[in-house]
UniProtKB/TrEMBL annotation:
Entry's Gene Ontology BP terms: carbohydrate metabolic process; glucosamine catabolic process; N-acetylglucosamine catabolic process; N-acetylneuraminate catabolic process
Source organism: Peptostreptococcus porci
Swiss-Prot/TrEMBL catalytic activity: alpha-D-glucosamine 6-phosphate + H2O = beta-D-fructose 6-phosphate + NH4(+)
Entry EC no(s): 3.5.99.6
Positions of the Glucosamine/galactosamine-6-phosphate isomerase domain: 12-227
Keyword Hydrolase: yes
Name of the molecule in the record: Glucosamine-6-phosphate deaminase
């Protein structure tokens, strides 16, 4: 595991974007696993800036997103497909037909998850998976539980996750209570994983996840078993790190 200590969110975003751009340059037809939320926004903004300068070409890239709310259409402003289009895909030369997000409108969970597992399998595998870290240690929407979920599944969102997402909706009643998410097995099969973390409010959970016991009660702790993980975190997120950083 490699730890990159960033000064702040902007520096973290730039460092993470450097890693993603290097992946695309080294393998133009790579498969990127992408995340949503506030953590990767700065990374996407930096990649767009470099694309506009002609430094990076996404025309042969395939992307597979981690998750999507069950019940939201791609046109819904709070859906993750809408997020990816407006914050990244619409601003680069990627083929939208090769950008994949779980189908939130498929209400049959078995069909939705089976279809997404097939997409992941047919992609040939994720070369680089970008992850954020939830306040309760979730990655994707893999919430704390009694076991590590293997492949794409429908999850009942934890109350802490619902409350964290409340700010994006007019009321808590409108916040989706379920989501489709790639499972831990799918995430761990990525060749490389980049975990980005910012803010003092994530400091304790980051330290517990990567320096504490491996347990499904803290899903991100499984990353300790992956052989190629890069953590890009700012000083605030590393403020409670219990080990020496080289």
């Amino acid at each position: 595991m490699i730890i990159y200590k960033a000064e702040d969110y902007k520096d973290m975003s730039r460092k993470a974007a450097n890693i993603l751009s290097a992946q695309v340059i080294m393998k133009p037809n790579c498969v990127l696993g992408l995340a949503t939320g506030s953590s990767p926004l700065g990374t996407y903004k930096q990649l767009i800036e470099w694309y506009n300068k002609g430094d990076i070409d996404f025309s042969h890239v395939t992307t597979i997103n981690l998750d999507e709310y069950k019940g939201l259409s791609p046109e819904n402003e709070q859906s993750y497909r809408f997020f990816m289009n407006t914050n990244f895909f619409d601003h680069i030369n990627i083929d939208k037909k090769r950008t994949f997000v779980p189908d939130g409108l498929e209400m049959d969970s078995e069909i939705a998850t089976k279809n997404y597992n097939e997409i992941i399998k047919n992609s040939g595998g994720v070369d680089l998976q970008l992850l954020g870290l939830g306040h309760n240690g979730h990655i994707g929407f893999n919430e704390p539980g009694e076991q590590f979920e293997r492949e794409t599944h429908c999850v009942n969102l934890a109350q802490t996750t619902i409350e964290a997402n409340r700010r994006f909706f007019e009321s808590e009643d409108q916040v989706p209570k379920q989501a489709y998410t790639m499972g831990i097995k799918s995430i761990m099969q990525a060749k490389k994983i980049v975990l980005i973390v910012s803010g003092e409010d994530k400091a304790e959970i980051l330290d517990r996840a990567l320096n504490g016991p491996i347990t499904p009660e803290l899903p991100a702790s499984i990353l300790q078993l992956h052989n190629d993980v890069i953590v890009v975190a700012d000083k605030a997120a590393l403020s409670k790190w219990s080990k020496k950083i080289y």
